[in-house]
Amino acid sequence: MVNNQKTSLISFVFYGLVMAVIIYLFILIGNLASVSAWVYSAFLMFIFFNLIQGKKVSFFRRIYFVTFSLLFSISYIVHLLEAFNGMALNEAAVLTNGIPFNQFLIPVLPFFLVFARTVQFPSPISGGILSVFGLVLVWIMATLVIGKGWCGWVCPFGGYEDFFSRVLKRPILSISRFGKKIRQFHLLFLAVVVVLSAVLLMPVYVYWLNPFTIITGRFTSGGLHGTVMFLLSLLLFITLVVVLPLLTRKRFQCSAYCPLGALQTLTNSVSSFKIVIDPDACNHCMKCVEACQFCAIDDGGAEVPIISKACAFCGECIDICLENAIRYEYGFVKSLSDIPKGKTVLGKILLDVFAPSHMFVLAAFTFCVFFSSHFAVDALDFLLNFIRSVV
Q: Model's pTM, two decimal places?
């Protein structure tokens, strides 16, 4: 028992120091005089220390996720208002070629580059995280390391659904048993979006079907067209991001509609991590099936529940499992019997320090820190300046 306590303490201190360095490099360096940078850094350390303990992983992930989505939205909208004098991206805004690159363009980007030899979107090619090169590079690295964990941890829009899907304690509309059909529809919708975009040489989803254009701005020439576009985006947002998550306790837009989410499902096999269920510990209660926000776990019947490639590593199933049968694991581990057992004190310490649960949280949260650093601090600066101007 003493050895286990020492091992946990060593891991806690080790990962705390590592994350402190990461936060310093991405947020504090060059911003030591910024109150916003210090406030956000303290918030991140609080979240990380709770995550690394392995208790209520999804709960503390959600606190970060919702907070980041709100701060990202503030920063993004303020940028659009300052750069283009509004949320309506008209011809003048398009001609600047300075509109931030939209992550929902990633699934159709290869087709644009092949058939049109251009991005087909008025964004800078390089020069920041929201340039074409910057965002695609970060997304590729995240996909290789945390897979669809991008959707569960990093996506700047996911916090809204994450919040609304947990407002009610029980779903009014249960859809867990339709998980396979929902995932099939999701992939079919991706195929339709890709084909239409390739044929029309137009980012169909971003222009017409994106529920988050109320945040990212809508492409319109104004007049009746602008009104219709605004009402359509508002309807999509209310339906897919607010109402359906409230009714189902699922991130419905992420699970059945978002084309990037569907692409992440297809590429999830290359992730360095996965979530596994120990058949010896599982009592077949199937609570994880209902708890999963992404409709990614199927009822296994007499066997353990089946985790599909749609898993976004959010940790909801880990939190709900009273038997501790569900956990993060390295992607290269083929069988639970392949996991080494520490026989010495040093061996146990090393196994604990490099435990996949710790390594995944470190990897996922590192992407969170990197991706959120500019937007969060920028939004906090804006809020502080606004408060000062009012007071």
A: 0.92
